[in-house]
Amino acid sequence: MKRVDERDIIFSRASYQKGSKQYEDYYRRNPEKKEIDDALREAPYPYGEGTATYHPINSSIAEGTFRFLGDIKKYSEGEVNSRKVEVNSEEITNKVKGLAKYYGANLVGITKLKEDFYYSHRGRHPENYGEPITEHHSYGIVFAVEMDKEMINRAPLIGEGIEVTKGYVNTAVIGMILSYFIRELGYEARNHMDGNYLLVAPLVAEEAGLGEIGRNGLLITNEYGSRVRLGVVTTNMELIPDEKENLGIKEFCKICSNCATTCPGKAIPQGPQEDVEGTMRWKINAESCFSVWKRVGTDCGVCLSACPFSQGIEAELLKDIKNQTENRLKILEKYKEEHGLRPFNHTPHEWI
Ligand code: SF4
Ligand code: SF4
Predict the structure, then answer these.
(1) Nearest ligand 1 atom to alpha carbon 306
(2) Are 263 and 303 spatial neighbours (Cβ–Cβ below 8 Å)?
(3) Which residue, 148, 199, 235, 329, has fewest beta-carbon neighbours within 10 Å?
(4) Dmax of the chain from CA atoms?
C-alpha cells in the first residue's frame, strides 16, 4: 500500500493560505487541485459565521474545544525517563489496556505497526509542512471512545459536532496519560491526537482487530458502529499484539449502502470497492464531503448515524455475519423498520 501524504488530505489543503510557502509549493506540484481548493477555501469554515447551523454560542463550544486541542497537542511528545523499569510484556500489555479503559476507552487493541500506516510527510501545520516521517515506533496502542447515540443522531446539526469534539478531547486525554505513563517507565511513546497524528488511525485500529473500515471510509466496530473516535499511542516498549479479525463488516457493506444513499454530498460510492493505489477499498470523495461541512457548518456526520452498526445490532444476529447472508438481510430489514433511511433526532437538546 502506498503511504498517504498528509499534505494531500483535505484538512491540510484547506489550511494553505494564498501567498504562503505551503500554498505555492502544493499547487506547483498539484495544479489540478487548485481550482476546487480555492473555491472551498473561500467558503466559511465549519462552525464559522455564514454556515447554515452557525450559532454564536453553540458554535463557540466546538471552536473553543478545537482551540484547546490545538493548545495541548504539543504535549504529545516528551522526555523519556532515564531510569528504565524492566517490564514483562504480558503484564504491561494488560496494564496499558486496563489504564486506557480506566480513563474511558471502550475498546483497546494493540498491533505491530507497518510502515505504510504512517503518513509519508507532514502537512497540517506550517512549522513542519513537508517534513518526511522517518521515525517509526514498533507498536500501536489504539483505543476507541464511544460517542453518544442521541447526539450523533442529531447529525448534521450542531449537537453532533459538539459530541465529536468531545470524543477528540477524550481520546487525546487517554493518549496523553498512556504516553506519559510509558515514558515514565523509561520507554519512548508518542500520543497521536486531533491535529497531530503521524499515522492513519483507522488502519491501525483495523489491524488491531477493533473493527473494519467500511463503505463510509470510517472504522466500523461491532459494538458502536462508526460512533467512535480513535486515538493511538505508539511506542517501542514490547507489547503483545492482538489478532486482526475478519468480522464480516466489509461483507455487510456490500449489501448495504445506507451511508451512500443518505450522504448529502454524494461523497460515498454506491458501487463495489476499487483498487486505490494498490488497496481494494471504497474511495470517499473528500472534496464533496468537505463542501457539505462548509455549507452546513458542522462535520455533518450523517454517515455515522445512517450506519446500522451505529444504532446497535443484536449479538445473535452479529454472529458469523461474514458467512450468514440471511443474518445480514435481517439486520438491514430490522434497521429499516426502526429507522427508515436513517434516524434523525431533531428534538432540542436541554442545554445546547
Ligand atoms: S460526513 Fe456527510 S458529507 Fe461527508 S461522507 Fe459522511 S454523510 Fe457524506
Ligand atoms: S451504512 Fe452500511 S454500507 Fe455504510 S458503512 Fe455502514 S454498514 Fe457499511
Answers:
(1) 7
(2) yes
(3) 329
(4) 60
- The pLDDT score that the predictor gives to residue 349 is 85
Question: CA torsion sign, 49 to 72 to 7 to 112?
Answer: negative
**Ligand 2 site residues, Cβ closer than 6 angstroms:** 214-216, 220, 252-253, 256-259, 306-309
At 62-83, the pLDDT tens digits run 999 999 999 999 999 999 999 9
Asked if pLDDT for residue 1 goes beyond 90, the answer is: no
Residue-level pLDDT at 243: 95
- Cβ 138 vs Cβ 131: under 8 Å: no
CB distance 228 to 108 below 8 Å: no
What is the per-residue pLDDT for 195? 96
pLDDT per position as a tens digit, 232-260 = 999 999 999 999 989 999 999 999 999 99
Per-position b or e across 166-176, b if 16+ CB within 10 A of its CB:
bbbbbbbbbbb
d(Cα 43, Cα 18) in Å, to the nearest integer?
14
Query: What's CA 343's distance to the chain center, in Å?
Result: 22
Structure-derived torsion over alpha carbons of residues 311, 65, 119, 134, reported in degrees to the nearest 10: -140
How far is residue 212's CA from residue 219's CA, in Å, rounded to a whole number?
A: 5
Closest CA to 246 of 222, 215, 278, 229: 222
Nearest bound ligand to the CA of residue 301: 1
Domains by residue range for the chain, with CATH: 55-235 (3.40.109), 249-339 (3.30.70)
Q: Closest by alpha carbon to 299, among 191, 166, 192, 170?
A: 166
Give the cell for residue 58: 453553540
Choice from 216, 262, 263 to test ligand 2 binding pocket (greatest atom count within 8 A of CB) = 216
Q: What is the pTM of this model?
A: 0.97
On average, the pLDDT of the chain sits at 96
Q: Report pLDDT for 324.
A: 87
* In the predicted structure, residue 352 carries a pLDDT above the cut 90: no
Q: Work out the number of other CB atoms within 10 angstroms of the CB of residue 32.
A: 7
